[in-house]
Write a structure and sequence with these properties.
The complex is a heterodimer of chains A (350) and B (294).
Chain A (H helix, E strand, L loop, with lengths): L5 H10 L5 H7 L2 H28 L2 E2 L11 H4 L16 H7 L1 E2 L5 H8 L1 H32 L8 H13 L2 H12 L5 H8 L14 H26 L3 H9 L4 H30 L2 H6 L11 H10 L4 H33 L2
Helix pairs in contact in A: 3-16, 6-16, 7-11, 7-13, 8-11, 11-13, 13-16, 15-16
Chain B lengths: L2 H30 L3 H4 L13 H7 L10 H32 L4 H11 L4 H21 L11 H26 L2 H9 L4 H12 L1 H17 L2 H6 L7 H11 L6 H21 L4 H5 L9
Classes of the chains: A mainly alpha (350), B mainly alpha (294).
Chain lengths: 350, 294
């Protein structure tokens, strides 16, 4: 072996490629499959199975308040208002299968969704909430986004933007609590200001007229910065050369927006509006923490209503049907979102 | 008016807008630095002797329902770091496979993944809750576990991993698509193994995507409340849970000192994150679908 030259060794290697198990595996079709296995496991375990479960139960009249079921303490006794966590529910799969009663019609639960006035009320309020929140946030966000457009050389810009964008990255639990302290009728700072200017103090979150606008205002405070961010991104997606050309042509402000900014910026703005719509539709934590749907049901949005059907009324069949409806709505929204995203790709790559 | 003067006024207006949005948080920060008496004072005090008493009491025990906050803080940290790290690894492997091998259902799967993040949490949690309970009872009946597995720490960790995967996948696929396959080919021609190409050629080039995915998923899991509230048992409850429950346990009277101090502690992490990682804010808030800087 001592006199094997490099040339000889190379020849030998070429003649007999080394059989390496790892290499063979990497070249086979098993390699991409292996890379995809973990994500598919997660997806099947935590999305596919629960969704099938949900769809299955949505066809049954299955309520944990039926007899013969080990009940959570909260059902027999009084429930603490905010704390109706179903820790006591211990129903095994076999028990689940024993107690479910097929709905009168297989789609009985879905029909009941349409017949439930409380739910229609919640859908109506959610719709109003989403429309008002998104419209106001978009108008404010676009206006402020244009205002911030020329700020790239501002001293301390990074700190200023951090302050500006903070409301959207803190947990809604915390921001809900912040605003409860600010809205507080006796020592809250807002009522202090109202009193200073000679007004009557208002208990915003328990007042029939004020609770809804008060929650809406917090949502606007949280998410206007997001629309500012999206507006800045939309403006940033306009090619510099076209803006300079518009400058050279002394284009009017209006036609600059119409012919230079809009054709490029509209996509990102649309994506922002869609994301915000989807997110506003999901609002649950915030109302849960601020008003818990009250006073009465004035701030009861769909997300909260669903939570209540499932975990306070323990009406699993019905809430599953409602969840399936919301799932379909989410998929529809996502399709629209991706359609806009692809439209942008097509236009930008032309 | 001179140009410099105009610029100065413009900047002053921008600063005022930014500060206006921050004011509510600043007010809570002030409350966290007050004594209990000062918080409840009428009229509200703007000038007071600041004290760290509230932070001290919040962290190291006080007479409300939650006497010690440290375990909750630890849960928050462990769950969010653990699940996000796991999600980043899982999504990186998948994003590479999707980007380079383009299996048949790529677009459909990407779409499904994104739509899972668009479903209201209260809809998902109904299903997960049913499934987790049944699995736990099944496992217990088989004698495999004595503590809840799915409704305990492992289940919540897995759930948060899935919660973070869609966003990481979208962002990383976008970044890997941006790395030309020629890099991979050059690697193969030079005798590199596929794993070498994956980790030594592609990985370094998508570092911004990894950072953005990590940071923003961290923020999202850190902020999550509803899953934690409903599924969480002992050892999985995070600070938002403590905030919401501490609220009730004070006997109807909210302990504002506790709420203020704890929430200031809690929100400081996302705030620091967006200060340092501001350039990823856009890609982060749009689930990786829009890239660019502001």
């Amino acid at each position: 072996m001592a006199t094997v030259t490099i040339a000889e060794r190379n020849e030998r290697a070429l003649a007999q490629p080394r059989r390496n198990v790892l290499r063979a595996f990497e070249e086979s079709r098993a390699y991409p499959a292996a890379l995809l296995t973990p994500i598919l496991l997660f997806f099947v375990l935590l999305n596919v199975i629960p969704t099938l479960w949900l769809i299955g139960f949505s066809f049954y009249r299955y309520s944990l308040q039926s007899p013969d079921i080990p009940r959570p303490a909260c059902v027999s006794g009084p429930c603490p208002t905010l704390l109706s966590i179903p820790t006591g529910i211990q129903v095994s799969l076999t028990q689940q299968l024993q107690i479910i009663i097929p709905a009168e019609l297989p789609i009985g639960n879905y029909i009941r969704i349409f017949e439930d006035p409380a739910l229609w009320g919640a859908f109506g309020r959610t719709f109003l909430f989403v429309v008002l929140a998104v419209v106001i946030e978009v108008v404010l966000g676009v206006a402020l986004g244009f205002l911030f457009w020329g700020s790239s050389k501002m001293p301390g810009r990074r700190v200023a933007l951090t302050l500006l964008f903070t409301p959207m990255v803190i947990t809604p639990v915390a921001s809900g609590l912040f605003w409860r302290l600010i809205y507080e009728p006796t020592f809250g700072v807002l009522n202090f200001l109202i009193r200073t200017f000679g007004g009557q103090p208002i208990d915003f979150l328990t007042n029939n007229q004020w609770a809804f606008p008060a929650v809406l205002f917090v949502d606007i405070w949280m998410w206007t910065p997001f629309m500012i961010l999206m507006t800045l991104a939309a403006l940033g997606s306009v090619p510099k050369a076209e803006l300079e050309a518009a400058e050279v042509d002394r284009m009017s402000w209006r036609s600059k927006v119409r012919y230079v900014i809009w054709p490029h910026g509209k996509f990102i703005l649309m994506l922002g509006i869609l994301l915000r719509t989807i997110d506003a539709f999901k609002t649950t934590d915030l109302v849960f923490l601020m008003t818990n749907g009250g006073p009465g049901n004035i701030t009861e949005l769909v997300g909260l209503q669903l939570y209540r059907y499932a975990f306070a009324s323990l009406n699993i069949g019905f809430s599953s049907a409602l969840a399936v409806v919301l799932l379909i709505a989410a998929i529809a929204f996502t399709s629209i979102y991706l359609w806009v995203l692809n439209a942008r790709r097509r236009v930008e790559s032309r | 008016m001179s140009r410099a003067m105009r610029t100065r006024i413009y900047y002053a207006i921008l600063w005022m807008v930014a500060i206006f949005f921050f004011l509510p948080i600043f007010w809570i920060l002030l409350a966290a630095l007050k004594t209990d008496a000062d918080i409840l004072a009428v009229p509200p005090k703007l000038i007071f002797a600041p004290t760290l008493e509230q932070f001290n009491k919040t962290l190291f025990g006080r007479g409300t329902g939650i006497s010690n906050t440290i375990p909750y803080l630890v849960n928050s940290l462990v769950l969010s770091l653990g699940s996000v790290a796991l999600a980043t690894v899982v999504s990186f492997l998948a994003a590479y496979a999707f980007s380079r091998y383009k299996p048949r259902a790529t677009n459909f799967l990407m779409f499904l993944m994104l739509s899972t993040r668009m479903v209201p949490a209260s809809a998902t949690v109904v299903a997960i809750f049913q499934m987790y309970n049944a699995f736990d009872i099944g496992l217990r009946n088989l004698g495999l576990i004595s503590q809840p597995f799915f409704r305990g720490f492992p289940g919540v960790l897995l759930l948060y991993t899935m919660f973070s995967i869609p966003f990481s996948l979208w962002i990383l696929k976008g970044f890997i698509d941006g790395v030309s396959p020629r890099y991979d080919e050059t690697g193969f021609v030079n005798g590199a193994s596929r794993l070498h190409v994956l980790f030594k050629v592609v990985l370094p080039q998508v570092r911004p995507g990894l950072i953005a995915a990590f940071i923003f998923n961290l923020i999202f899991v850190w902020n999550e409340f509803l899953f934690n509230f409903i599924l969480g048992g002992q050892g999985t409850q995070m600070i938002p849970y403590a905030l919401a429950v501490g609220l009730v346990n004070a006997g109807g009277n909210i302990d504002w000192g506790y709420v203020a101090a704890l929430s200031i502690l809690y929100v400081s992490l996302p705030v620091v994150m967006i200060f340092f990682f501001q350039r990823y804010l856009l890609v982060g808030m749009t689930f990786g679908t829009v890239r660019g800087e502001v």
